[in-house]
Amino acid sequence: MRPTTPSGVAWNAPLEGGLAGAPADAAALAHFWTTLDDPLLTQLVERALAGNLDALAAEARVRQARALRKIAVGAFFPTINASAGAKHAEANVRTPGSTVSRATADLYSAGLDASWEIDVFGRLRRGLEAANAELDASDADLRDVQVSLVSELALAYVDTRALQERLRIAEATRASRSETLDITDWRAQAGLTTALDVEQARTSLATAEAVIPALREALAADRNGIAILLGESPGGVDELLAAPKPIPVTPLEIAVGVPADALEQRPDVRRAERVLAAETARVGVATAAAYPSLNALGSIGLDALSPSGWLEAGAWTGSLAATATQVLFSGGQITGSIEAQDAVREQALAHYESTVLAALGEVENALVAYAQEQEKRRALAEGAAAAERALALAQDQYGSGLIDFQIVLDSQRSLFLLQDQLAASEGQVTANLVRLYKALGGGWTPGATS
């Protein structure tokens, strides 16, 4: 039922920026965050996997599916019931001479009853297949939650470091423009420039200061988001993340394998396939209702007028029987159940195929985004270096009276804009790598059990 992806098929997107079509290292993919060489990130991931509430709920669903499988297995065995009872009876007895006397009697009984459904037409077997598939699906769902959790945490952590760098640039820009305002004000007092230059310098400083609150707000939101992902209250990691650190650097080369590797690794694809298997098995369960149901019944017991009488040979009773039940007319209910379940199976098949296409598309998009963001970062780095040189030249020429002060302000704005965009792009490169690892199914180990 599950479509196959030929192993020779390659990605449609060109593999650039250190991407390689070699088979992905399973260990590196399972713990992709370690490739960023940031011990604090690794520590946070471990805490999140242990304390995240969504992950704990997914683990509980796995335990539920495991318990339901026990129920399906138990249906293959006889059901045995034990019973015991004691009865005391009194009655008036009239003798032939019209004399009424009081008669009493005690009755003690004990027994075992057993019933067993003989699975001739596979109803129980198909039910067990469905339970096994549901257990696999719930385990894949847990892995999918873990993959999403790790990627969300890594993205929030990378964004935190990028915001810290952008905040550093903004604060340095504010200090630089404050110095420029002081110099301009001194020159105006000395009659070397006009009040217009002073007001323009003051406007430039206010503009730089206005950027800082928004960056601090975004930084606080990231920290709170990380704490919640860890299953902790907002503010729980503020002290841990207070000190700025560099944006994690991506490895030089990333092996992405081929589409078949990604489909095998991704837990959401596995879950969709297992749900399809479960619904297919339930078609068999519904079909079995159209055939006879065979049951074996048996009982063994003891009946005596006193507990000591159970030891006598005549106290033993027993029976053995077999029954067959066939529905002769149900007004189309059985046929309707089969058709309805087959429609559910078709829905599961369509969902599986849709999940496969979405998975392939997600990887393709992530490949392009990762490679192109590196090109953007290179261009911004060159632009920022040129803007820094241009500002130095503008300040020298303005000090010599060769150019207008507006050129200095424009150079300052260009430098800040390029430095800010460069810091954001550096964070985006690492974030796109995290998204690529997530698209490839990184964040869990195939074959691991909960």
Radius of gyration based on Cα positions: 38 Å
**Average pLDDT over all residues:** 88
Count of all domains: 2
CATH architecture of the largest domain: Up-down Bundle
Structural class: alpha+beta
CATH class of the largest domain: Mainly Alpha
Q: In this structure, how is the largest beta sheet organized? A: 4 strands, antiparallel
Describe the structure.
Helix 5 (195-229) runs parallel beside helix 9. The longest helix is centred in the middle third of the chain and has 67 residues, at 123-189. With 450 residues, this protein is an alpha+beta fold. 34% of the residues are buried. It folds into 2 domains: 19-76 and 119-291 and 329-439, Outer membrane efflux proteins (OEP); 79-118 and 292-325, Outer membrane efflux proteins (OEP), CATH 2.20.200. A hairpin with a 5-residue loop joins strand 2 and strand 3 (100-118). It has a 4-stranded antiparallel beta sheet, with no helix packed on it. It has a two-stranded parallel ribbon with strand order 1-4. Helix content is 61%, strand content 14%. The two termini are 27 Å apart. It contains 9 helices and 6 strands; from the N terminus they run E-H-H-H-E-E-H-H-E-H-H-E-E-H-H.
Concise overview:
This protein has helices at 26-30, 39-51, 53-74, 123-189, 195-229, 259-265, 267-288, 333-399, 405-439; strands at residues 19-20, 79-94, 100-118, 254-255, 293-304, 316-325.
How does the SSE layout of this entry go?
Blueprint lengths: L18 E2 L5 H5 L8 H13 L1 H22 L4 E16 L5 E19 L4 H67 L5 H35 L24 E2 L3 H7 L1 H22 L4 E12 L11 E10 L7 H67 L5 H35 L11
Parallel strand pairs: 1-4
Antiparallel strand pairs: 2-3, 3-5, 5-6
